[in-house]
Specification:
The protein has about 150 residues and is α/β, with parallel strands linked by helices. Helix content is about 45%, strand content about 20%. A 5-stranded parallel beta sheet has the order 3-2-1-4-5, sandwiched between helices. Helix 1 links the parallel strand 1 and strand 2. Helix 3 runs parallel beside helix 5. The longest helix has 25 residues. It starts with 5 loop residues before the first strand and ends with a strand.
């Protein structure tokens, strides 16, 4: 197995995000690795940019969401992070799974540790699975954690 020095942890600020981060902190300590905690703000108009030009206030709303996401991530890190673990954080905008995959490749992370939401049946069909897409397409190993177990 390759050396694990950089671990990516995508969070979504759900009730389970703290559980996922605590698990990632545990793993990071075992490997003496650093953590990169990211949040991806889903872009409202990315899928329709070819035929729809959003009105200026809508663009401002997306900018406000990005800024508030940065504040929320900073607060989340302050509350949940073990200060003895080397870490950084970043907010990205776009399709959640694609941004996670692109970031992992650009930053050459050694592992991704992320949660699953456990969608089943119709919910899975309607919402898809970010974790499933990341597992299938990641440039590195992915450890998924079911926060309900």
């Amino acid at each position: 197995m390759n050396e694990v020095k950089k671990i990516l942890v995508p969070v979504d600020f759900s009730d389970n995000s703290e559980k996922i981060l605590k698990s990632a902190i545990y793993v990071a300590k075992k490997f003496e690795a650093s953590l990169m905690v990211i949040f991806v703000a889903q872009s409202f108009f990315e899928d329709h940019s070819d035929f729809f030009v959003p009105h200026v206030p809508i663009v401002e709303i997306e900018q406000d969401i990005f800024k508030s996401s940065q504040k929320k991530l900073a607060s989340f890190i302050d509350e949940c992070m073990d200060k003895t673990v080397s870490h950084d954080s970043k907010v990205l905008t776009g399709d959640v799974a694609e941004e996670i995959l692109d970031f992992a490749e650009e930053e050459k992370v050694d592992w991704i540790i992320m949660g699953t939401h456990g969608y089943k049946g119709l919910d899975k069909l309607l919402f898809g699975s970010v974790a499933e897409k990341v597992v299938k397409m990641a440039p590195c190993p992915v450890l998924t954690i079911n926060p309900y177990k």
